[in-house]
Amino acid sequence: TRLTQVEPWLLLMPKSRFYFFLVKQIGLAVDAHQVKTVALINHQGCGGYAERHGSLEPEKERELQLADLKAAKAMIQRTFPDVKVELYIAQIDESQDPPTISLEEIR
After folding, report:
1. What is the full per-residue pLDDT of the chain (107 aa) written as tens digits?
2. What is the rounded CA–CA span in Å between residue 107 and residue 93?
3. Does residue 8 contact residue 42 with C-beta atoms inside 8 Å?
4. Dist. CA 31–CA 79, nearest whole Å
5. Which of 4, 61, 91, 103 has CB atoms 3.0–4.6 Å from 39's, for a disulfide?
6. pTM value surpassing 0.85
């Protein structure tokens, strides 16, 4: 069973209501539904990153997203050591009609 999508950067704000909500949701999924895998997905052109960091070049946005994904994974693994955490960055190709989304797995 898999739980997707968690906004990884929200897991890095431990005093925020989002943090408590997401940790509670993951715990509920693990306890009630025996979730074994959590997938964290960031996406290119994320408005949340633009809001937090201002205008970003794609390379800088990716650098921040990778760091946040890895930090959120570590936090989840500390809290839920039996849960596997998968990391992805979604690329959105808006030149297609309808737009297509591809997932790049981060190892």
Report:
1. 444 455 666 666 666 777 778 888 889 999 999 999 999 888 888 887 888 888 889 899 999 999 989 988 998 999 999 999 999 999 988 898 998 999 999 99
2. 22
3. yes
4. 13
5. 4
6. no
